[in-house]
Write a structure and sequence with these properties.
The protein is an alpha/beta fold and 419 residues long. The chain has helices spanning 2-11, 53-64, 102-111, 141-146, 181-192, 207-222, 247-254; strands spanning 28-33, 71-74, 118-120, 155-159, 162-166, 227-230, 260-265, 272-276, 279-283, 295-299, 303-308, 317-320, 335-339, 342-346, 356-363, 371-376, 383-386, 395-402. The strands form four sheets. It has a six-stranded mixed β-sheet with strand order 3-2-1-10-11-12, with no helix packed on it. The protein has a six-stranded mixed β-sheet with strand order 4-5-6-7-9-8, covered by helices on one side. Strand 13 and strand 14 form a beta hairpin. The chain is globular and about 70 Å long. The relative contact order is 0.13.
């Protein structure tokens, strides 16, 4: 009976949303904006109008509040800077009294008028504030507090069948007070870095955050959840002056998760779009440069439509997120046992039509991308022993079945344990 139900689910899947999940995935719309970058100051180069941030966001929210939206997201650079002399930055961070977060409070007050739940992504400019707050709290803790976070600004949540992951560009020396060890570590990383994205206004994603991200993505993939990643920085190729520092590393990581359907970001005010395999990369245009740079994004099981400003009829982007249907059921009862220092991997015999079993592993503490370690053609064996050059407990394993077409979804990821 279980086999029949599993086969039924495979045959009647639509995109990522099969019959077993159809009740969870329902269409919804959100508000989205990037780089309002408010500061009560004069205009500066590149068509930037920082003083307009509050007015532009207020105008957008007036329209958003008349629509059927589930929530809203600000993709970072909420402020341009606050309480510093920006003419001396980044060579010096010079406190400019009074230190009261006036511009931050003003733009957040405007954002809080949106009448649905709100999510915030931190950008590089949101850290362009004094090293320490008036009570001695140091960056980044002072920034987290100002924007309503506790000890970090990366997090995840589910909504109507999708998993949304918010990332923080936390590997930047400008995010930290110089007395903190993280400052020196981030500065050393930046100074040793080479590539077109080496600009002081760019950041990277730290190792600890990548480890956390892969755990979330492992869970989502095993549950067939489509994932949208929201980050301030773009990662798509070609890399340039507004690209995440460790974008190559991140793309390698993401390639192991075919359920990541969209990377949504700001940072580059001109905007942009790229397709990497079946994964969309969308850079929303910055509000600091133009009052019409605000968006509504509609999600459904097989499409994401992006509308700009007051036009909710003709999408600026119509993204196909449908995926080929699996043609084999997911592996049953996959287990990873610790046996004499090796990983003994076991699974139930695959269904008819399967031609091979693909085995992959990843090293947990280094957040390395998933690597294929074996392809077993004799599919009825049901087990395989792997002996990596590092302790086997440091790895996670997963498998999938291949056939003549699309094959199966991945199994759950397993770390070897003693029986």
């Amino acid at each position: 009976m279980h086999s029949f139900l599993r086969s039924f689910a495979v045959l009647f899947c639509v995109s990522f949303s099969c019959v077993l999940r159809a009740g969870e995935i329902t269409p919804f719309s959100i508000a989205a904006v990037a780089d309002p970058q408010y500061a009560d100051t004069d205009s500066r180069g590149g068509g930037r109008e920082p003083w307009e941030g509050v007015n532009r966001l207020t105008h957008a929210i007036k329209h958003w509040n008349q629509r059927e939206l589930d929530w809203g997201v600000n993709l970072g650079d909420v402020i341009d800077w606050d309480d510093i002399d920006y003419s001396k930055f980044p060579k010096q961070t010079v406190f400019q009294p009074p230190q009261d977060w006036k511009d931050t409070r003003a733009i957040l007050a405007a954002w809080n008028k949106l009448n649905v739940p709100k999510y915030t992504v931190l950008g590089n400019h949101d850290f362009y504030v004094p090293y320490q707050d008036v009570d001695g709290m140091k960056k980044p803790a002072s920034v987290y507090r100002a924007f309503g976070f506790e000890d970090k600004a990366y997090y995840e949540f589910r909504h109507k069948g999708f998993r949304f992951v918010v990332l923080e560009g936390d590997n930047s020396y400008l995010n930290y007070d110089p007395s903190l060890p993280e400052y020196k570590k981030a500065l050393d990383y930046y100074e040793a870095f080479s590539g077109p994205q080496k600009k002081w206004w760019n950041a990277g994603i730290s190792l600890g955050q990548r480890i956390w991200l892969m755990e979330i993505l492992d869970q989502s993939l095993a549950q067939s959840e489509p994932v949208v990643i929201m980050c301030h920085y773009p990662t798509h190729k070609p890399f340039g002056g507004h690209t995440l520092l460790n974008s190559a590393e991140m793309l390698g990581l993401l390639d192991g998760y075919p359920n990541v359907i969209l990377w949504l970001n700001g940072h580059h005010h001109s905007g942009g779009y790229a397709m990497d395999g079946t994964r969309h990369h969308l850079n929303l245009k910055g509000m600091q440069n133009e009052d019409e740079h605000w968006y509504q994004i509609d999600f459904s099981a097989d499409r994401i439509k992006v509308y700009q400003a007051e036009d909710t009829t003709t999408p600026k982007y119509d993204l196909n997120i449908a995926r080929p249907l699996p043609t084999a059921a997911a592996p049953d009862n996959f287990a990873a046992d610790l046996s004499d220092g090796s990983a003994l991997l076991r699974w139930d015999a695959p269904p008819d039509g399967v031609t091979a079993v693909v085995i992959e592993r990843r090293h947990l503490s280094t957040a390395e991308a998933w690597q294929k370690v074996a392809v077993i053609q004799q599919t009825q064996v049901g087990e395989h022993t792997d002996s990596p050059d590092k302790p086997v407990q440091e790895f996670a394993y997963r498998i999938r079945f291949e056939d003549q077409t699309e094959g199966s979804p991945y199994s759950h990821a397993r770390t070897p344990t003693k029986k």
